[in-house]
Specification:
GO terms for molecular function: L-lactate dehydrogenase (NAD+) activity. The chain has about 300 residues and is of the alpha/beta class. The protein folds into two domains: about 140 residues, 3-Layer(aba) Sandwich (Rossmann fold), CATH 3.40.50; about 160 residues, Lactate dehydrogenase/glycoside hydrolase, family 4, C-terminal (L-2-Hydroxyisocaproate Dehydrogenase, Chain A, domain 2, Alpha-Beta Complex), CATH 3.90.110. Helices cover about 40% and strands about 20% of the residues. Strands 3-2-1-4-5-6 form a six-stranded parallel beta sheet, sandwiched between helices. A three-stranded antiparallel beta sheet has the order 7-10-11, covered by helices on one side. A hairpin with a 2-residue loop joins strand 13 and strand 14. The longest helix has 22 residues. The chain is globular.
């Protein structure tokens, strides 16, 4: 079997949680952790290698950008974290500069794998990762609305009592304030969401607001969110390394889907060993089409204002 290697940039709470989840859920041979605070990566490498007797042998080490050269995946979690009261778009200027300092040395190392981005604002940074790297669009992936969708399904499960595994509903568009839920097409336990009497219009508006504000609420209480997005990253890496053809709502490259071009935005997409093999354009109601167009316009406005 070929040697599986993951290169992780960013060893904060998202990065370290992802590393732990990855080793416990995916068979890999080598994990290299890179961060400006070298002492932390060295400590994490020592801590994580203690998992080997429980999950299988894996080389875990602290490294630098040259270690990306033969990696299958480069995962980017590095960036300034959102603070209470901040939106994800507030992070743009700071995190674009950080992103530029990361992508160039990874590409220069000879890396030819797949970029997976979770730093915020993730749709903007995923779009810029593709532009900065020059990689094919299918080889750049962002976590997008995968976390938002998980939160939506949890909220719907709480309201209906239906197991999350039987809920087919997505959050689309930006991973941020212009996101929206596809309630009109959502299915719960093989029935249309709107057939559930407990999910009246007022309740759905409340759910939408709660899902959108959940991240901020978590940050206000404990300083950061990391468990959910770390597992989203793990599932993406698993799909790539095991060629799973997994469907997830991601920051996916829009090449005409929903009438959108040259932008990464939240939509279901198929992840395989080659990265994103297909972007699934969902049927949307007229109202939802307007919401998607609005979300794309807001993201494009930000991207167009960035001078690389």
């Amino acid at each position: 079997m070929s040697r599986r290697k993951v290169f992780l940039v960013g060893d904060g709470r998202v990065g370290s949680t992802f590393a732990n989840d990855l080793l416990q859920n995916v068979r890999i041979d080598e994990l290299v952790i890179c961060d400006v605070v070298k002492k932390v990566t060295e400590g994490d490498a020592l801590d994580l290698e203690d998992l080997a007797p429980f999950v299988g042998q894996c080389t875990v080490k602290s490294g630098d950008y040259s270690d990306a050269k033969d990696a299958d995946i480069a995962v980017i979690t590095a960036g300034a974290a959102r603070k209470p009261g901040m939106t994800r778009l507030d992070l743009v200027k700071t995190n674009v500069k950080i992103l530029e300092s990361i992508i160039k040395p990874i590409v220069e190392s000879g890396f030819n794998g797949i970029f997976v981005v979770s730093a915020n604002p993730v749709d903007i940074l995923t779009t810029l990762t593709q532009k900065l790297s020059g990689f094919p669009k299918n080889k750049v992936i962002g976590t997008g609305t995968s976390l938002d969708t998980a939160r939506l399904r949890v909220a719907l499960s709480h309201k209906t009592g239906v197991n999350v595994d039987h809920i087919d509903a997505y959050v689309l568009g930006e991973h941020g304030d212009t996101s929206f839920e596809n309630f009109d097409e959502a299915i719960i336990d093989h029935k249309p969401l709107r057939s559930y009497k407990e999910l009246d219009e007022e309740t759905l508006v409340e759910l939408e607001t709660d899902v959108r504000k959940k991240g901020g609420k978590i940050i206000a209480n404990k300083g950061a969110t990391f468990y959910g997005v770390a597992m989203c990253l793990t599932q993406i890496c698993k799909a790539i390394l095991e060629n799973k053809a997994l469907v997830m709502p991601l920051s996916a490259p829009m090449t005409g889907e929903y009438g959108i071009h040259d932008l990464y935005l939240g939509s279901p997409a198929v992840v395989t060993a080659n990265g994103i093999s297909d972007v699934i354009e969902l049927h949307l109601s007229e109202d939802e089409k307007k919401k998607m167009a609005y979300s794309a316009a807001k993201m494009k406005e930000v991207v167009d204002g960035i001078d690389l």
